[in-house]
């Protein structure tokens, strides 16, 4: 059950205290930063935040919900999919948004450790899948619009092309410790659009 579903399922009562909400998130971020994923538990979060375990469970059904909330809190606001009328220009904007998210947000700095932990920990993997699933939707939407406008072939696999675009940026920035400037972004997008572009 997601945090929103858990909230909806609760009986009406006294409104939640936003200070408690923030204290719980701050405690979770601190535990992740100090001790990694193994340090994150409902009990530890409650202790560090100075609240009861019940207060944590009222907001998050389990550790997966809590991790997903931490990722969302640490990330920049989810951007709207660009719509310039050109799939190439839209994809260039998506690359820049992703570059900024990876290099300039707390979520980006946490991602390498979370990717490593996801290999061994199913809870981390599920939380990451939820988080990245919502974050990749603008890329898929941009590609599908490109297909509808005839800029990309009708048989283009939008999910695969989105994975290729996002994966290329993540690999270069996080795995190779490289840079991703405007020229590199143009090279990547032109390669993808050239391969999936509609034929005359």
Q: What would you say this structure looks like, in words?
A:
With 200 residues, the chain is mainly α. It has 2 domains: 3-73, Tetracycline Repressor, domain 2 (Orthogonal Bundle); 76-196, Tetracycline Repressor, domain 2, CATH 1.10.357. Helix content is 72%, strand content 0%. Helix 2 (18-35) crosses helix 3 and helix 3 (42-49) packs across helix 4. The protein starts with a helix and ends with a helix. The model is unreliable at 1-12 (pLDDT under 50).
Question: What topology does this entry show?
Answer:
Layout lengths: L2 H7 L8 H18 L6 H8 L3 H7 L3 H12 L12 H18 L1 H13 L3 H27 L9 H18 L6 H15 L4
Helix pairs in contact: 2-3, 3-4, 5-7, 5-8, 6-7, 6-8, 6-9, 6-10, 7-8, 8-9, 9-10
The biggest beta sheet reads:
none
Q: How would you sum up the global shape?
A: elongated
Distance between the termini: 48 Å
Number of strand segments: 0
- Kindly name the structural category: mainly alpha
Q: Could you report the average pLDDT, rounded to the nearest whole number?
A: 85
Text of the CATH class of the largest domain:
Mainly Alpha
User: What is the string of SSEs from the N terminus onward?
Assistant: HHHHHHHHHH
Strand portion: under 5%
Looking at this structure, what is the CATH superfamily of the largest domain? Tetracycline Repressor, domain 2
Number of domains: 2
């Amino acid at each position: 059950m997601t945090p929103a579903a858990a909230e909806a399922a609760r009986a009406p009562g006294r409104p939640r205290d936003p200070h408690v909400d923030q204290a719980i998130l701050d405690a979770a971020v601190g535990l992740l930063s100090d001790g990694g994923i193994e340090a994150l538990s409902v009990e530890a979060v409650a202790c560090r935040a100075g609240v009861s375990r019940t207060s944590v469970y009222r907001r998050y059904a389990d550790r997966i919900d809590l991790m997903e909330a931490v990722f969302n809190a640490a990330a920049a606001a989810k951007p709207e999919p660009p719509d310039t009328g050109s799939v190439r220009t839209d994809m260039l904007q998506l690359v820049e948004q992703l570059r900024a998210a990876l290099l300039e947000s707390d979520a980006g700095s946490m991602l390498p450790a979370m990717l490593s932990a996801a290999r061994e920990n199913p809870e981390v993997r599920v939380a990451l899948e939820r988080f990245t699933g919502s974050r990749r939707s603008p890329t898929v939407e941009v590609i599908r619009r490109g297909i509808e406008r005839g800029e990309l072939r009708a048989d283009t696999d939008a999910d695969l092309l989105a994975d290729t675009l996002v994966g290329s940026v993540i690999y270069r920035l996080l795995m190779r410790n490289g840079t991703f400037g405007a020229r590199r972004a143009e090279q990547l997008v032109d390669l993808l659009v050239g391969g999936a572009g509609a034929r005359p």
